[in-house]
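Tokens for chain A. Residues wanted.
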């Protein structure tokens, strides 16, 4: 019976970079963030299982759609190690991301609609404009427009809408 040296099946960081289309520094970054895992040989060289190529592909797709790295990391942590994920596991992963993407799309559509209303309004009146920020009320919560992409965290119903009255 032949024994297989695991390092011969493993990929170097350069091979992973070439085959995945990402820079070596990106691979190191992904590893530092817990998105992928590797190990060191006795000669202190990094090695990666071939499955890491699939994980990097998933990371790249998720990043392109705007999924935060922390969410990607949490989801990848739940995947099996030592084998490529199954079609069903991919569907489950994708379904969770789909819900997040649907929310992001809805938020962007609301933002677009608010901007359309504002641009078409022409009121130019701070007293009447729903987009105003009188007396820098948001300044108590943040130094800038930090709530544009996450109004619910600041207690706002929608982007550009004032806080609901209790």
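Reply:
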């Amino acid at each position: 019976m032949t024994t297989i040296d695991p390092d011969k099946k493993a990929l170097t960081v350069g091979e992973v970079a070439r085959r995945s289309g990402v820079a070596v520094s990106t691979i190191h970054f992904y590893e530092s963030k817990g998105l992928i895992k590797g190990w060191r040989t006795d000669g202190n060289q990094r090695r990666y299982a071939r499955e890491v190529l699939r994980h990097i592909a998933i990371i790249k797709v998720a990043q392109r759609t705007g999924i935060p790295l922390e969410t990607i990391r949490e989801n990848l942590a739940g995947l099996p190690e030592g084998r490529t994920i199954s079609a069903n596991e991919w569907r489950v992963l994708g379904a969770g991301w789909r819900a997040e993407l649907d929310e992001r799309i809805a938020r962007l559509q609301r933002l677009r609609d608010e901007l359309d209303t504002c641009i078409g309004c022409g009121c130019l009146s701070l007293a009447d404009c729903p987009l105003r920020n009188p007396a820098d009320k948001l300044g108590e919560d943040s130094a800038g427009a930090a709530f544009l992409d996450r109004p619910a965290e600041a207690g706002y119903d929608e982007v550009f809408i004032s806080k609901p009255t209790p």
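The helical segments are 6-9, 13-20, 24-32, 52-64, 69-77, 87-121. The chain has six helices and three strands.
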